[in-house]
Task: inverse folding
């Protein structure tokens, strides 16, 4: 598997509320590459969808979701920073961005009260989003980089796009800081395509029960609880195909599936993703075996659901 595309995705700045550059990259990627795919998708986007993007393949019955946005920081006044989502910031992390005066590269610091500041040599325009500096490292068995959450999910969907005959790929916004877009998108797909099955493709955290290198993760529950009948159906498909995966049971955390469950929509959802170390930090880490197995798992489900 060629990970050059993943490296490019990890370099595109797209904090919550600032996803437009990543959306435009994906549109251009589809237009450039889809002629060689099994099915050429219909692109759904526009002002009425804000920065969300949907690709419709054939006669879809299931939607695969991956959020485009990341955690990061917003410049406040003078040298103050406010978090976007919940970044796991550390002193001397390097941040980059751009305001009206030009490019920015600076380090952050955290005082004893937990307040975050930057050391840039001038005032950064208030409201400027900043992200961890790209640092993609491909090793023999692992990949480390800022923003594997959730560029890994996007990467997996673009791999799926090459062979997908019937289905929808949804690239959503605001997952890391408030959510909301998926409830609207799910309603649109339910109304216009009668789609009530969804797979949330994201990353999850390494815990006492989830480890790197043992396969992608099927979440049986987090802070929210998907419908057991739907989860059991998915597990039966994977077991029949002898695919490798891990089962996750957690009391906290959430995803775009949470937004579907909180909506007034009869949409089933299942979270499937790659475990990562150091989540929301400047150096997230994932296992290559898990990434490859995730791609195989999604392709199987696309033919079954």
Result:
């Amino acid at each position: 598997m060629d990970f050059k595309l993943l490296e490019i995705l990890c370099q595109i700045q797209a904090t919550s509320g600032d996803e437009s550059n990543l959306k435009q990259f994906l549109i251009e990627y589809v237009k450039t590459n889809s002629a060689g795919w099994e099915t050429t998708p219909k692109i759904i986007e526009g002002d009425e969808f804000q920065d969300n993007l949907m690709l419709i393949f054939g006669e879809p019955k299931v939607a695969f979701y991956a959020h485009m946005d990341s955690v990061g920081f917003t410049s406040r006044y003078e040298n103050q920073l406010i978090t976007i989502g919940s970044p796991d910031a550390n002193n001397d992390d390097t941040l980059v961005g751009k305001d009206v005066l030009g490019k920015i590269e600076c380090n952050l610091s955290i005082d004893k009260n937990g307040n975050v500041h930057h050391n840039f040599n001038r005032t950064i325009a208030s409201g400027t989003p900043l992200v961890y500096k790209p640092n993609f490292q491909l090793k023999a068995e692992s990949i480390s980089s800022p923003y594997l959450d959730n560029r890994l999910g996007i990467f997996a969907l673009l791999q799926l796009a090459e062979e997908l005959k019937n289905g929808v790929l949804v690239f959503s916004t605001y997952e890391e800081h408030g959510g909301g877009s998926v409830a609207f998108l799910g309603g649109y797909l339910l109304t216009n395509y009668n789609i009530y099955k969804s797979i949330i493709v994201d990353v999850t955290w390494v815990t006492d029960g989830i480890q790197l290198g043992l396969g992608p993760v099927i979440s049986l529950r987090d802070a929210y609880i998907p419908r057991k009948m739907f989860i059991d159906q998915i597990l039966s498909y994977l077991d029949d195909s002898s695919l490798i995966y891990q089962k996750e049971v957690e009391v906290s955390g959430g995803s775009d599936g949470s937004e579907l469950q909180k909506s007034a929509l009869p949409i089933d959802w299942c979270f499937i993703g790659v475990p990562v170390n150091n989540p929301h930090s400047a150096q997230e880490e994932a296992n290559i075996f898990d990434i490859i197995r995730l791609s195989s798992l999604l392709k199987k489900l696309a033919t079954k659901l």
